[in-house]
Design a protein that fits this description.
The chain is an alpha+beta fold. The chain is built from 18 helices and 23 strands. It has a seven-stranded mixed β-sheet, sandwiched between helices. Strands 20-19-21-22-23 form a five-stranded mixed β-sheet, with helices on both faces. A hairpin with a 2-residue loop joins strand 12 and strand 13. Bound molecules: glycyl-adenosine-5'-phosphate. Glycyl-adenosine-5'-phosphate binds next to strand 10, strand 13, strand 16 and helix 13.
Length: 528
Amino acid sequence: MLTRKRLSLNPEDSLFFYPMSQDTFKKITAHAKEYGFIFPSSEIYDGLSAVYDYGPNGTLLKNNIKEYWWKAMVQLHENIVGLDAAILMHPKVWKASGHVDAFHDPLIDNKDSKKRYRADNLIEDYMAKIQTKIDKEVKKARKRFGDSFDEEKFLSESPRVLKYKKQIEQIGDRLNKALSNNDLEELKQIIIDLEIADPVSGSRNWTDVKQFNLMFDTHIGAVSGSSSKIYLRPETAQGIFVNFSNVLKTSRMKIPFGIAQIGKAFRNEIIARQFIFRMREFEQMEMQFFIRPGTEKKWFSYWKETRLKWHLSLGFDKNLYRFHDHEQLAHYADAATDIEFKFPFGFKELEGIHSRTDFDLKSHETHSGKKLRYFDPETKETYVPYVIETSIGLDRMFLAVLSASFTEEKLDDGSTRTVLKIPAILAPVKVAVLPLVKKDGLPEIAREIFNELKWDYMINYDEKDAIGRRYRRQDAIGTPYAITVDHQTKEDGTVTLRYRDSMKQERIRITDLKKELNRKLHLRTWLG
Ligand code: GAP
């Protein structure tokens, strides 16, 4: 949606509340690179800030997430169809959507260091620092009182903690007010009053706060000039709105119906941090559900519930998800909520569900002069449909899967194994086929199994190194099943099937492998 979301002002969500998790986060990013999931873009030229490439395993995982979303939306809903609109669109689209006039962030420069910041981020970071003081107080008190320490009581009674909490609240209120009133002078005043210094140079020599439009622009054709200026789309949703009539005419859809799309979006984020959480080039999976006006409350609840169910179907801890209903709504929305996920740096937005009224279609009617209406055969009325939107960042979903899956386990022999407990339906490689040794005819049997299964799934064949090392390699990329061909295979036609998470093994007939894998990896097993 158009209004930019701010970092949560809830102190419990601050980075500093998760000191251990920050460490884990570093490990996850390093693991993602080491095992071919994510690389910095153009790395040999020292990278491009907030732009990333997906490696061999990352591509597989990303495609599997796309497919899981697409099938849940398009294949399993008779009344949802797909679309693949172009990234480049007529520039009037972005005037009509409001992005030309209102898609911006408040930017401030430090005159000495020449560094550029988001003004609201500087203030939020200041609040997070106060939060660290609270954390330190808690740590000290815990040390002093030992087992009898009651953290909740301490947080609600310690005068020093209460003073810090009040400071956070007051700054938060002031910041929120300035942002909602678009009051750039007040934003600068907050920075001055709090004596916030440039984190790099320590200088307090700030410029005024300016609005910075987040859309990337470029020129179409050979001539550059204002008439040829176009934008890289900042959301995929508008491609759906402008195709509303085309889809309606060609797909025989009746309201209520949805149009789903997966595609790239671009935002020139001032400060992009936290790895693939906030990128300048990213992918969205969006669905606009067109409904009869007056039914928006019902459909908003339906999509809230349906989308959460989709997330929970993956089997991660349900406490990793929560709804965050918006109190301040954009001018066109009558309800909005985020599905937040507990990333290693705290609860943050993963998906947005927005009740967008008829704002977008009406605005496109005005700017294009074309009618975007629906004749309802049931009510015999013609109207501009209302829209419920579900919008999830594919890369953010990728990060959610990666962070929830990343596990370091101490084993009985004292060693540690790093395993990605990726839900099997999303795992980049589904099965590893491993001959126990590289002789005695075992590789030949393993190859046969590989050649049979590869038609259905992404399979790895691996015969190099000791079997334990090969299991670890597969654990590290999240392969849920390993088939080992051993000497008994030659006698009775069975192999071992090893489960990644429990490391348990069972014997299974080669002839039963396909049936068993189909059962475990069937969409119905997950979404049914
Ligand atoms: N059409 C609605 C829309 O674009 P949004 O809240 O701005 O709404 C939707 O974005 C989703 O896109 C977010 O919930 C998030 O998952 C993802 N997203 C937004 N900006 C992003 C960025 N800079 N990097 C990665 N993902 C982003």
